[in-house]
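Please check this chain.
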Amino acid sequence: MRLDQTNKTTEKVDALVSYFKVADSADAAWAIYFLCGKKPRRLVKTSLLRTWAAEVAGMSDWLFAECYDSVGDLAETIALILPESERSLDMPLHLVVGEKLLRLRSLSESEIRASILTSWDEMDAGQRFIFNKLLTGAFRVGVSQSLVTRALGKVASLEPQVIAHRLMGHWEATPDFYRALIAEKTDDTDRSRPYPFYLAHPLEGQLANLGEPSDWSAEWKWDGIRAQLVRRQADTYIWSRGEELVTEQFPELALAARSLPDGTVIDGEIICWSEGRVMPFSTLQRRLGRKRVGKTLLKEAPVAMMAYDLIEFAGEDIREKPFESRRALLRQITAGGFFQDIFMVSPSLDFASWEELVDLRQGSRDRAEGAVEGLMLKRLQSPYRVGRQRGDWWKWKVDPYSIDAVLVYAQRGHGRRASLYSDYTFAVWEEDKLVPFAKAYSGLTDEEIRQVDAFVKRNTLERFGPVRVVKPELVFELAFEGIQESNRHKSGIAVRFPRMSRWRKDKPAQEANSLAEVKALISEA
């Protein structure tokens, strides 16, 4: 409740510190697990929760649906409609997780129903709400992992980056894990553990504010999957930026990594690479999420790693060494014939002035079939930091594509936007018909979202479950990073990372772009 009732970072950190100073190790481990956004695999179907809650409340399905539509959040809806309880559960978090959540995996459907109804009956409304959030895997309370590491660093008198590193990879929420996490020194037996990624901020201000060009390195910003390749004790582990172990999806990288020196960790971008050039991102997408990659796919979508940085060398953490020193070591270990088509060092660009760099950026979209998104700027003397920090690494992306589109469908958002229509579908013209082609939910201010929400409520034409068909009047400029043909969409196109760049209140719906104009952008991509 303390975390939920403040937007101030210092107050959130103070609340976390107060909690972890007194929490039992078993409770603290699970608190970290949930606060860092982790969740157990789905324990029960949400459709069953809806049915059981409506039954307990003596409510018809249509009335529950209306309540859900009004509230916009399933966990909160259930907590509100259940009969009031004078009871309040006094049970430690780790027992709630073990006895009331994880235990459901071994029960039949009727036993799950009985267990959940008993839990609801034992809890007050606030407890039910949190329990439902944990049960559905939707728990969020406005705390980033960086705030958790800051708080734990204060509790343990350790640097936050030490905590951040120990939280990387796979771990179980156990008392032993928590004690090792905050220990002054610990023997890290997890040889697969990656490092926290260093993330760049979008470039701010003028290039001249960065100082002398000679103090900086520039390279292409490749459009692939950011990853770390870990080679330790004769084993290879490939981690995505989302901390997913994806080694099996890229067997050719794992095989090639056998020739890397032991105690090596490379940070880079996984791309599809064939005959000396990058293939489109859509080709790489075919490799993602697969447990097994067949021979045909290996041939049609071969991958390589465009290496950015070396952060462990000969078993030593070298993140504090200057970037130019780490790059020299990276070129050293990847030199040689076998590595040239598997582990390629992302080339440094030659530029003597900021004006020359501007010219390079302007031509970046024409490179490698759109597989370059712009430039990365890195200070030669910079260490490899933790998380997204300003100062030493900047990303300077090319200007996005943009078109004007008409809002045609709306749906309620999630979290603090659960009661607002904030998720939108947009369409463009094909002759006299509007053809949906993209969804977007970011880019507007809170005030603009409230205005659109009011419009949706006044101008709903039809309802399809949670989706509202609205009068086609509002026009928005959509920005997106890439566009390609797609057989999976009725429009015949798919765009990457669409967002609303501005509300075109000056433009009537009839003046929005046509599908033909949008498809014409494919030749530019």
In short: The first strand starts at residue 198 and ends at 199. The longest helix spans residues 9-22. The radius of gyration is 26 Å.
